[in-house]
Design a protein that fits this description.
By secondary structure, the chain is mostly helical. The chain is 69% helix and 0% strand. InterPro entries: HD/PDEase_dom, HDIG_dom, HDOD, RNase_Y/CdgJ.
């Protein structure tokens, strides 16, 4: 990328950041508004059904998931959104909304390498989300759905930068240049996005800090521990070789969460099940 072109991109990019005018595709912006609406403490199930009904893709996915064996073992067909949201629960619906929005973003009309990179980011986000959910459920008392949300959003800064770089793709002549830019800006843009979306501080802190997290030994186990662990274990999950993990090189968060060679295979198997449920729901 030529210096003048790089300067133009960065100038536009930083202006968006400082003005908080984040430019996301309508699909993801809409699903984040839905997530926010669904988080209202006094919202009724009828209101939830109306909100979901305003987004056709999300409506179809929610109804589809409510008729899967995992959530509906009775096999009694669910045909309306009110019944579907009662069956699934608000937390699951919120996470489905974000998963659907990110999938739509990843499937935007990108060219060449951008399409491959977006798809890779989306799939990794789903894996980390499933891992975070399973770790939280088995090793902590915190909400598994909150952990899943942190996993879904942990690379949101990369999604944003790739999406914006796509608008300037003629000036990016090297993937190395693009990924250097992403590495430099990922944390700050991610923090700005989550603040703009009014995502809870605990999730925002985990997303911003998990890459370089070093908690004191006596520190209370946090969502950041869970996300650090999920992010690290993703490579183990992809290669399906937990027995080859060098336990002398793992992040301290795994030890703090009491994850070891004996219980890791069971966590991986449970993650595979959770991931298949999510993928089946939003395909």
């Amino acid at each position: 990328m030529e210096k003048n072109a790089e300067f133009t991109f960065l100038e536009d990019f930083t202006a968006e950041l400082s003005a908080k005018k984040l430019v996301f595709p309508t699909s993801l912006g809409a699903t984040m508004k839905i997530r926010k609406a669904l988080s209202q403490p006094d919202i009724s199930n009828d209101q939830v059904a109306r909100i979901i009904g305003a987004e056709p893709v999300l409506s179809a996915k929610v109804l589809h998931l409510s008729n899967t064996a995992s959530f509906n073992p009775s096999g009694r067909q669910v045909t309306d959104l009110r019944s579907a949201t009662l069956l699934l629960g608000f937390a699951a619906v919120r996470n489905i909304a974000i998963s659907v929005g990110m999938k739509q973003l990843a499937e935007n009309k990108y060219k060449g390498g951008f399409s491959v990179q977006m798809d890779g980011l989306w799939r990794r986000s789903l894996r980390v989300a499933a891992l975070a959910m399973v770790v939280a459920r088995n090793k902590t008392r915190m909400s598994p759905d909150k952990a899943m949300l942190a996993g879904l959003l942990h690379d949101i800064g990369k999604f944003y930068i790739l999406n914006r770089a796509h608008q300037y793709q003629d000036i990016f002549n090297s993937e190395a240049v693009l990924w250097n830019l992403i590495d430099d800006w990922n944390a700050s843009i991610g923090a700005a996005i989550l603040e703009d979306w009014e995502v809870p501080d605990e999730i925002r802190d985990a997303v911003v800090n998990f890459k370089h997290y070093q908690a004191a030994p006596q520190h209370k186990i946090s969502l950041t521990d869970v996300l650090t662990t999920a992010d690290f274990l993703d490579a183990v999950f992809v290669h399906n070789q937990p027995e080859q993990l060098d336990w002398s090189q793992v992040p301290a968060s795994l030890q703090r969460l009491h994850i070891d060679a004996d219980n890791l295979p069971a966590l991986m198997l449970e993650t595979k099940t959770e991931l298949s449920i999510v993928l089946h729901a939003i395909q």
